[in-house]
Amino acid sequence: MPSPETVAEIALALPGATRSAHFDVTDFRVGNKIFCTLPKPGVMGMRIGVDEQAALLDEDPETFSRPENRYGQNGWTFVRLATVDPDQLRELITEAWRRLASRKLQAEFDREAPR
C-alpha cells in the first residue's frame, strides 16, 4: 500500500515540484499551482480532467471518489491509498503535475525519464 511518504517521494521527484500547505493540508505544487494534496489520512487528492475523473470513478469506485464540492466538479479526485495500484498512482501524480507544469519542465522530465 502506498503511503503519504510515497506520494511525497513521487511528487517531489518531478521537476519544479515543491511541498507546501494550505489550511493544514499538505500539498504539492508546480509553479505555485497545486497538483496533488494529502487532505486526510490514507487519501490523496489530485487535479485531473473531468473526463479522466469520470473514467476512474466508473472503473474503480472503491479507490476513486469525487469531492462533494465545486472542486470535485472541476476534476479534483480523491484516491484511496489502501487500494490504488502503486504504478497507477505514480502515473496519476505525474499526469496531474503535467497538467500544470510549464513546457520547459515537461521537456526536462521527458529528457530524464527512463526509456
Summarize the structure.
It contains five helices and six strands, in the order αββββαβαβαα. By secondary structure, it is an alpha+beta fold. A hairpin with a 2-residue loop joins strand 2 (25-30) and strand 3 (33-40).
Provide an overview of this structure.
This protein is of the alpha+beta class and 115 residues long. It has one domain (4-105): Alpha-Beta Complex (Aspartate Aminotransferase, domain 1). Helix content is 42%, strand content 28%. The protein has helices spanning 4-12, 50-59, 70-73, 86-100, 103-112; strands at residues 17-22, 25-30, 33-40, 43-47, 64-65, 76-80. The chain is globular and about 35 Å long.
Structural class: alpha+beta
The tally of helices reads: 5
Strand neighbour order, sheet with most strands: 1-2-3-4-6-5
CATH class: Alpha Beta
List the helices and strands and how they pair.
Layout: H1 4-12, E1 17-22, E2 25-30, E3 33-40, E4 43-47, H2 50-59, E5 64-65, H3 70-73, E6 76-80, H4 86-100, H5 103-112
Antiparallel strand pairs: 1-2, 2-3, 3-4, 4-6, 5-6
Structural features:
115 residues; alpha+beta; Aspartate Aminotransferase, domain 1; 42% helix
